[in-house]
């Protein structure tokens, strides 16, 4: 059994969307976004719903604890499937709520999810940065920042969604060192989120380092990652476009480390790159082609839980109360996931 890793959470929050669609409010600075040509919106939404269900089941089967919540569609939140942007959790019982760039994304913040985490985990405090939206300052969680939870470094690509003042405040409160850098793709556009170009695991890091505009800064980022004992896996432009950088290391059954990523991302990796990953983690490719139309992939779908669990003894598993369709405030404990379950599901291992 590998030693426990602060970098690889054993639990995640996921949100299953009812009315998924690529978000026009975020299209201007998200070069990864696309449209389902010739596909009716209802079919796009149905496929997205099924992809989240299947991905959650695959994670569960691998031993990851999944907290699955429903988005009933009443808030008009087309990007709700990406909860890692509006909150993050941290060892010691800390939770952060983030200021979001697009108005529709601000509606994704949900008190029921935070209250559920408080009930299941030891939460000491919740620091809410969402008020910075009124000052035009945004910091979209672990999309804007890729966090090294061991060395306490917040790698951050500068963008509309990663304000320098907001980053400094987060790093001061949560004891991270900010490491910001400018990026530019072939068209000269910055990466909208850091987590589409960088994944920091326990023993490796996948990165599109070529996107870091300044050569000295690029070298500094590489060096800091190597100082943590990580082997660097260089991703090229094609692989970044296939979401190979948008992956998350998790801890599964018996402490086995997993690298969750999309099938598309996994297929883009070379045999040598996969060999480096497999030395410390098992590849877990998930099929999410519809969800990737919104400009994010598997890592964006997973809000890692770095909190300590509460220890509560149950004589038998709790049963889910009856829930009406679209009831997103009901928390159920379930042994499996089905498309007919409209309550939020807590999947135990």
TrEMBL record:
GO terms for molecular function: transferase activity. Keywords: Transferase. It holds the Pfam family DDAH_eukar. PANTHER family: AMIDINOTRANSFERASE. NCBIfam families: citrull_CtlX. This is Amidinotransferase.
């Amino acid at each position: 059994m590998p030693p426990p890793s602060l970098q690889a959470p054993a639990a995640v929050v996921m949100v299953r969307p009812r009315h998924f669609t690529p978000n026009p409010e975020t299209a201007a600075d998200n070069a990864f976004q696309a449209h389902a040509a010739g596909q009716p919106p209802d079919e796009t939404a149905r496929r997205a719903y099924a992809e989240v269900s299947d991905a959650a089941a695959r994670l569960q089967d691998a031993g990851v604890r999944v907290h699955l919540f429903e988005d009933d569609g009443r808030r008009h939140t087309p990007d709700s499937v990406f909860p890692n942007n509006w909150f993050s959790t941290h060892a010691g019982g800390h939770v952060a709520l983030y200021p979001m760039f697009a108005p529709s994304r601000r509606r994704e913040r949900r008190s029921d999810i935070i209250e559920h985490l408080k009930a299941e985990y030891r939460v000491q405090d919740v620091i809410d940065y969402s008020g910075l939206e009124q000052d035009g300052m945004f910091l979209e969680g672990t999309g804007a920042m890729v966090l090294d939870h061991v060395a306490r470094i917040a790698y951050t690509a500068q963008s509309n969604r990663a304000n320098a003042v907001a980053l400094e405040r987060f790093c001061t409160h949560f004891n991270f060192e900010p490491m910001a850098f400018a990026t530019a793709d072939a068209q000269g556009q910055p990466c909208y989120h850091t987590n589409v170009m960088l994944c920091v695991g326990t023993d490796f890091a996948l990165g599109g380092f070529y996107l870091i505009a300044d050569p000295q800064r690029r070298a500094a980022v590489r060096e800091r990652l190597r100082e943590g004992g990580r082997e660097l896996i260089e991703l090229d432009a094609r692989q970044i476009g296939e979401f190979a950088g948008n992956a998350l290391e998790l801890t599964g059954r018996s402490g086995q480390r997993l690298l969750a990523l999309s099938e598309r991302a996994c297929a883009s990796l070379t045999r040598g790159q996969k060999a480096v990953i497999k030395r410390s983690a098992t590849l877990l490719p998930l099929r999410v082609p519809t969800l990737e139309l919104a400009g994010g992939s598997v890592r964006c779908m997973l809000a890692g839980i770095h909190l300590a669990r509460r220890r509560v003894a149950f004589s038998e598993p709790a049963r889910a109360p009856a829930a009406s369709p679209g009831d997103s405030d009901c928390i159920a404990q379930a042994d499996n996931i089905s498309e007919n379950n409209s309550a939020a599901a807590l999947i135990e291992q």
